[in-house]
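2 proteins. here.
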Amino acid sequence: MCVDESVIKFKGRSSIKQYNPMKPIERGYKFSVLCDMSGLKLEGSLAWGTIRINREGLPKGMASDTSLKRGDFGHKTSNTGVTFFKWKDNKIVTLASNFYGTETVQLKRQLRDGTTSHINTPQIVEDYNKFMGGVNYHD
């Protein structure tokens, strides 16, 4: 099961219309979406996903953006058992999980000149890309 918020584009007049300039669809109706995906088990179990880097409660001392090269990552675990990952592909990606460890896998990426390279990534990134499903494609 996967729960996320989504927005249906609407530019007309309505008192329940919401405006968020940080989203691709800035104006519209916001609602929750429930999808059948691996990753979130209800009532006290497993969850993972992306998180904003300025979110309150993130552990201090994560690797700085400038120190990370493509394929590098850092991680910290909070006192509540949630592990936060900061990984660099083309841009910095920040993820959180309450069950992933620091296992790494290799992803194949195509470079601008057409060649392919293998970069290291935490297992959470590969699984997030695999199971992201339709909810985040709408955002």
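next one coming up
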Amino acid sequence: MSSMERRKLIVAISAFWNLIMICVDLGMEVMKLTVIFLVSNRLGRQPLDDYEMKHYDRQRVIYKCTKMSDTESHRKIRMNRTLFTNLCDLLAAEGGLKRTRNIEIDEMVLTFLLTISHSDKNRS
């Protein structure tokens, strides 16, 4: 296989991978809208309020940062998905980190890592 053929193959594979990631992201949006529709139309309940919308948005960010791909995970939190999962497990087992009523362990760790990896503030 010549180097030109190899480059074409790499470009084709990366384009295909990007298309898959776009489809996954679109699928997450469709799932979110489906959940909103089903929950809001169940038993005459009012549409989702701001708190519930923020919950779904937080879950989407967690998915994109920690479960979508190693490349995206490394870009956002500077570690791959396996290492992030191991870190959460270690902090829970050895560090005594516990989930609360409002936030899961992976969300706590993700918030911390996003803050320190990008020198950002957690507040607006």
